[in-house]
Amino acid sequence: xxxxxxxxxxxxxLVDSEPxxxxxxxxxxxxxxxxxxxxxxxxxxxxxxxxxxxxxxxERSGEWLPADFDEVFHGRVFAAFERELExxxxxxxxxxxxxxDGVAYCLASSGSHERIRVGxxxxxxxxxxxxxRVFSSQDVGRGKPAPDLFLHAAERMGVAPEKCVVVEDSPLxxxxxxAAGMDVxxxxxxxxxxxxxxxxxxxxxxxxxxxxxx
Length: 214
What we know:
214 residues; six-stranded parallel beta sheet; 9 helices
């Protein structure tokens, strides 16, 4: 294989959570007096940790979000996950093949550890990710587009950055991977290819990943 470690983003790459979470985020921000469409939410927040929501709203409006914003937002998202979340088409097959072939992989997500675990339990992905393979923006000082999370994951997995490839579907994630000195494969199932500028490869079906890694 071309790489010693495959680092997966989670939301939108392994679990089909972006439509759910961005619909909820847009609705909640609008409810709080910050009109936001679903498309706005995808553009501004997809792939980012929740602190970016606070930062952009403060920058644009001069107003702080409520102190319980994260708690309310995550509560709504987790409830939606329990009702509706599904794995991304092809995710289980790809992880099964990587596991069978002994390929090292892990996950580096802007989401919290709790969000990751809720989603994985619902979709059956928890079978493929023990605690040692899961890294969150909670673990580092800065989330994507900073390279910190990907560098942290590589260090913990014992692999040099140049031997890693990141699988990402957000512009912020692509920027973070490139800043970390890693190749990055842009997954275009939800994101237009032109928004993943700089990606090493682009692909639209997760099952194509195995061939790209060969």
